[in-house]
Amino acid sequence: MISMPRSAAAPTLSAPASLSTLTPAPAPVPVPVPTLPPPRSVRPSSPVPRVADSDRRRTSASVVLRSVLEHGPVARSTIARVTGLSPASVTDYCARFARLGLIREAEPPRQAKGAGRPHVPLDLDDSRFVVGGVHVAVPYTTVALLDLRGRVVVERRLKHGSTDPASVLARAADGLVALLEGAPGRRALGVGFAAGGWVDRESGTVVHHPLLGWREVPVREMLGARTGLALHVDGHARALVNAEQLFGRARGSRSVLHLFVGNMVDAAFATNDEVHHGPRSQAGAIAHLPLPGGTEPCDCGRVGCLLAELSERTLCRRARAAGVIDGVNPMRVLDAAAGGDAVAVRLLVERARMVGRAAEFLLDVLNPETVVVTEIGIIGRQDCLAALREVVGPERSAAVVPSGFPDSVLATAGGAVALDVLYRDPLGAAAAGGAAAAHLGRG
């Protein structure tokens, strides 16, 4: 089952090439007047936009909108100071965002009489737009709408009648459309899809989800066709890294490890605001790493794999064998522990210690500044968090924190895929989302 500012540095500009010294010819000739390069460029502008120019504009737009997210309500002059962009550039981007409806002017602070014209601060306009979120877990699908601050506006859980991909995705699309119809006045900029297992972001495909039995499922094609909205796909551990850096506990961290422990066991790692995906987005596949001291047989034929030891299926099987629960819902184990069941407490704390051993190994390999762990016991109980931190050791325990989305982690995972796209390329994503929404409205 289941920060912030990622302050990007302003684009670095190369110094203009020095002007060559002109030596007069013996005979009088007109001396050309050297011209300085255009502002913020090292060469005369070309009628054809260059890739570097496009990337620079996208990065500048991103840092401006993220600054409003982090600091808002905030003055334009403050945005210019914290981003390093020129006041003119900040004003231009803010005007574009305002026209798109992404930001608005907030009430200016009161000033003493005669103190001059007050700066009018800017803030996100979180009243107009939403993104859709779809997360497919083993027992059910979560569909949700999130606002521009990553807050869940509404969510629904759709229990699987069948895990056939066409059936699951059709129900998800219908559920999402129903949520949008129930939110008049809100326009969707896009939809994010997240799931465990091997998910290829570039092709929009679930390559392999062993517990669902999915292989090479073209989610972007199937789900996007049914919603008519821009559809973005990623693995849930990577999606949650982005959410933690934008809205959660990893705001400002230069490197973040996210460890997801549910029915699936996955990890994701980000440095300098970039999540590592690897070839075909296979990075973070840790399910079959061996856990020292593990005894659970795994479907892969080995013993002690992280997935076999830490899966919620294993937790529930052990809880049933101990007479704690009689079903397959891990939240019932958490409820039993909250009610004082000593066996349930022991099972959860032991699991937290095993998660700690996995986190300790990944800390040794990657040495991140922040580790975020998504696991029901660690999210919900201080004794489980303490057990995890005890295993990783006192020197690094403060770096390990539970998920910043304890009540909505799966909904957040789905929506965060689309929100990450928006905050990386706000002008492009808003334009694409608006066109798709207009097309959907005509359909």
Walkthrough of the structure:
The structure is a single chain. The protein has 443 residues and is α/β, with parallel strands linked by helices. Helix content is 40%, strand content 18%. The protein is built from 14 helices and 15 strands. The protein has helices at 51-71, 76-83, 87-100, 165-181, 219-227, 236-247, 306-310, 312-321, 330-338, 342-366, 376-380, 382-392, 409-424, 426-442; strands at residues 103-105, 122-124, 129-136, 140-146, 152-159, 187-195, 198-200, 205-209, 214-217, 231-235, 255-261, 265-271, 274-275, 370-374, 400-402. The strands form 4 sheets. It has a 5-stranded mixed sheet with strand order 5-4-3-6-10. Strands 13-12-11-14-15 form a 5-stranded mixed sheet, sandwiched between helices. Helix 1 packs across helix 3. The longest helix is centred in the C-terminal third of the chain and has 25 residues, at 342-366. The two termini are 36 Å apart.
